[in-house]
Amino acid sequence: MTDTVDAGPAAEAPAVDEVIIRFAGDSGDGMQLTGDRFTTASAMFGNDLATLPEYPAEIRAPAGTMAGVSAFQVHISDHDITTPGDAPDVLVAMNPAALRSDLHTLVPGGTVILNRDTFEERNLAKAGYDHNPIDGDDLAGYQVIEVPMTTLTKDACKELGVKPRDADRSKNFFALGLLSWMYSRPIEATLDWIEVKFADRELVAAANRAAFNAGHAYGETAELGSQRVVVRKAPLEPGTYTNINGNTALSWGLVAASQLSGLPLFLGSYPITPASDVLHELSKHKEFGVTTFQAEDEIAAVGAAIGASYGGSLGVTTTSGPGVALKGEAMGLAVSLELPLVVVDIQRGGPSTGLPTKTEAADLMMAMYGRHGESPVPIVAARTPADCFNIAIEAARIALTHQTPVILLSDGYLANGSEPWRLPEVADLVPIDVVYATEFNQTNEDGEGVFWPYLRDENLNRPLALPGTPDLMHRIGGIEKEDGTGNVSYSPENHELMVHLRHKRIASIPVPDAEVAGDADADLLIVGWGSTWGAITGAVRRIRTAGRKVAHVHLTHLNPLPANLGDLLRSHRRVMVPEMNLGQLSRILRAEFLVDAEILSKVKGQPFTAGEIQHAINQRLDELAGEGS
Amino acid sequence: MTDVLDAGANREADEVPATTRADWTSDQEVRWCPGCGDYSILTAMQLLLPELKARREKTVFISGIGCAARFPYYMNTYGVHTIHGRAPAVATGLAMARPDLDVWVIGGDGDMLSIGGNHLIHALRRNVNLNILLFNNQIYGLTKGQFSPTSQKGKVTKSSPVGLVARPFNPISVALGSEATFVARTHDMDRQHMQDTFRRAYEHEGSAFVEVLQNCNVFNDGVFSTITKKDVREDMLIELNHGQPILFGSEKQYGVALAPEGVVIVDVAKLGIENVMVHDETIRNPSTAFSLSRIAKTPATPTPIGVFRAIDRDEFSSSVAAQIQEVQAQLGKGDLGDLLRSQPTWEV
Ligand SMILES: Cc1ncc(C[n+]2csc(CCOP(=O)(O)OP(=O)(O)O)c2C)c(N)n1
Ligand code: SF4
Ligand SMILES: [Mg+2]
């Protein structure tokens, strides 16, 4: 896999086509920041990449313990990739706990870079080691690079007059410098960033700079030359790129939807991991006329969004699974009122508090059926971090043009993971047409004009008249309404009619046909939704590269489903559905289409790796080959 | 959106057309039990709004669930009958999105103090521009007679057949505890007093909270008759009037005075008029108003009505809007292309 690069930041370094690095340390060690800076440098250099940040659930878990380990995995490559990688090639372990918790993730023969200074009695005990793994045979079969990072960082900072305790905090920059050297990363962007970030703390800036430079120089002086490689630029489509995570992309998508519809954006939200960053991001964008309302609870958050939507704003509420559970009744109200509303569920491990900082995609059934009565809502799901931008616009478009609450499903993996994103041209984004009623739409017995709020158009949509519109005063509510007039009605026939109308209205929302990736004539079809896209796509590529056939359909619209889906499902001998739950989409597919959709389940709080799916596909293909055709 | 409302905005420049009760009355048949106190509250409102020169299209009634919460259906205005307890939340979103509207919130004692208690106290704390009317009948009417969070201790109801164990909330005390900027009480037997109180609520900038003592003649008949019946009112209702000594009784022989243990009822002849408390609704510290709210623990004792507190404080939605305007004045209106390029970018 190696050849020599003739140009670039490290002219003499051999090239590798990809590398997966995992930075792991104590929560206080700044691993997220280190990973993030390494990622940015790689993105700006031109690699394709994907990231997987993994945070502990506690804000300040006891230092040095396994519970406190925070990790950041980044996959960089010279070609198109779709996942943060199956297993890291390199593990940077800043303390014994990080080594103990993450060593098993490393590929056989992989490289461990550890901060030797922390491998002393107290930290070893906190990590639960009864011996020093550096001396034992724990690390046999790995390449181990022991670096006294703490000591070297303190030495580098001594001249600056930085107190040793403060200098200790910069050791993550030492690690970043070392890794930047090993992978021939450009260093200017990182040094500039330090300058800006710590502009008002000159001593901290100086310490971080010194640590970074010391780490960078260490590779050279410690004669780690043989370790040095380069990962060349990936042939990405021409354009302007930025490295984006899912929550930022989603926030920007909501801003874009507001601009495209001409409606002010109103976000009602209550803090919850991993959704809070959307509240934070949107709170920063008042220049777009965005109103953010941190409510007293999730119910008030959705209630306020409904109120704002009734008043003519783009009403949005963002949360995670536990919050969606609380919003259920209000979503039913929005179904009954037929008001636009976007409900964003950034899924996490459940039930209850579950795994707040880990990913799962087990809220599909709740999104489909988690309200009382027959209360259908459209559901869309994002597949990559950058895709969250498009999906936010799509959710708003459906909500505003079909006057309905829409559930947008993302998850913790997409929320915090990042990838390079080719920025769209604003002019290419399609405007969202919103029409409000301004005139009477009926005549009463006396020949006078009147307004009927539930008089439907050909798409079964009702007219929305905003409060403030002269003459169109009317009352709406959660009690069953008479078709047409909207007056309270308990008539059995009318209720049945309204239940059917609400169902039909949502079921007939036009949804693009599902597209098949891979081999349309394959025996095996993989159906996915949401964030499994990366792992499934990676697996399908490997299978096809190996000369076997497999097809992949990935669903963006989960309700209604694409019209061609039934035919697609029936045109393959076998259907497998990888899901981060116990089989929610697969159950829907079985119910809807009477096909034997098989679940491939993973509920470990971590995304699938491409390898896991590749393995499952190969097994199925072997079985199919055995069965003959 | 703005285009749609332009027509309305143009009209705004015109005189408000004169309206009558009929203009404010919807075509829906009123479905409360005959004799229910809710009727007189509705009448008071329908007669008051023409006097206030309010615009029907700019008026919105938002309610929760309960008998009281049916109110919006009977008003020829905009209206949303939402879900149990959540009206203050929905109304907050509407008031934030649309500062041009007059938003009224209607609900019962169960709606606003039990299931929706959290939303009520937070709306009051924030001081959102809402007129909140709590129809207190000390019972769950719509669900046919269970005790509510304002039912008296010992009360026998369907769900407390041997007497209610817990103590009730005093809605005025709750509102004052939330530091509401306008807090008042009125009752369904006195239309003029209701209208005077609703008018004050309407004119108040910020959250205005009004407790309306309301008779549920089916499930809790007469709970307030000990204080609101015409022939006992003089002795049992303590009318609060700003700037006036707090006196009551047919001869104004009773008064209210500040004692070390709080506010107490006194015999004016004994204590001297100079020692009777002069009502000041503008005291910023809510403690005095709170003490006044504690005079009557049950409707068996003289009970203050009128405006307990009315102070100025920044209104929530306009303060939120001001932050947005300030940022836009500084940075200009946001540009989506700039936003997409606001993180480090690179060219391929
Ligand atoms: C979520 C929910 N829980 C319970 C109910 C049933 N419910 C309807 S009204 C009500 C209480 C009504 O009491 P109150 O708010 O005092 O209003 P009133 O009928 O006395 O005017 C209850 C419990 C409901 N509609 N929704
Ligand atoms: S049950 Fe009571 S509150 Fe409800 S309408 Fe009848 S009398 Fe009025
Ligand atoms: Mg009640």
Number of strands of chain B: 12
Give the N-to-C terminal Cα separation of chain A.
38 Å
Could you say what the CATH topology of the domain at 2-223 in chain B is called? Rossmann fold
CATH architecture type of the domain at 2-223 in chain B = 3-Layer(aba) Sandwich
Distance from N terminus to C terminus of chain B (CA atoms, Å) equals: 40 Å
Rounded mean pLDDT of chain A is: 95
Strand content of chain B: 15-25%
What is the CATH superfamily of the domain at 2-223 in chain B? Thiamin diphosphate (ThDP)-binding fold, Pyr/PP domains
Q: pLDDT under 50 segments of chain B (min length 5)?
A: none
> What ligand molecules are bound, each kind once?
thiamine diphosphate, iron/sulfur cluster, magnesium ion
Number of distinct helices of chain A: 20
Q: Would you tell me the overall average pLDDT of chain B?
A: 95
Uncertain residue ranges of chain A: 1-11
The strands making up the biggest β-sheet of chain A line up spatially as 12-11-13-14-16-15-24
Could you give a short account of the major beta sheet of chain B? 8 strands, mixed
| Named CATH architecture of the largest domain in chain A | 3-Layer(aba) Sandwich
Biggest sheet layout of chain A: 7 strands, mixed
Helix vs. strand class of chain B:
alpha/beta
Approximately how much helix is present in the residues of chain A? Answer: 25-40%
In spatial order, strands of the major sheet of chain B run 2-1-3-4-6-5-11-7
Number of helices of chain B: 13
Describe this structure as you would to a colleague:
The complex is a heterodimer of chains A (629) and B (348). Chain A is α/β, with parallel strands linked by helices. Chain A folds into 4 domains: 4-231, Pyruvate-ferredoxin Oxidoreductase, domain 3; 242-428, 3-Layer(aba) Sandwich (Rossmann fold), CATH 3.40.50.970; 435-491, no CATH class; 516-627, Rossmann fold. In chain A, 37% of the residues lie in helices and 20% in strands. Chain A has 20 helices and 26 strands. In chain A, the strands form 6 sheets. Chain A has a 7-stranded mixed sheet with strand order 12-11-13-14-16-15-24, sandwiched between helices. A 6-stranded mixed sheet of chain A has the order 4-5-3-6-7-8, with helices on both faces. In chain A, a hairpin with a 5-residue loop joins β18 and β19 (449-450). Chain A is globular. The two termini of chain A are 38 Å apart. Mean pLDDT of chain A is 95; it is low at 1-11. Chain B is an alpha/beta fold and 348 residues long. Chain B has a domain at 2-223: Rossmann fold, CATH 3.40.50.970. Chain B contains 13 helices and 12 strands. Chain B has helices at 2-13, 38-52, 87-97, 109-115, 117-126, 171-177, 191-203, 225-228, 230-236, 268-271, 287-293, 316-331, 336-340, and strands spanning 59-63, 78-81, 102-108, 131-136, 182-187, 208-213, 237-240, 247-248, 254-259, 262-267, 303-310, 345-347. In chain B, β5 (182-187), α7 (191-203) and β6 form a beta-alpha-beta unit. The radius of gyration of chain B is 22 Å and the shape is globular. Chain B starts with a helix and ends with a strand. The relative contact order of chain B is 0.11. At the A-B interface, α1, β10, α9, α11 and α12 of A face α1, β2, α3, α5 and α12 of B. β20 of chain A pairs parallel with β2 (78-81) of chain B, so a sheet runs across the interface. Bound molecules: thiamine diphosphate, iron/sulfur cluster and magnesium ion. Thiamine diphosphate binds at residues 65-68, 84, 107-111, 135, 137, 139-143, 148 of chain B.
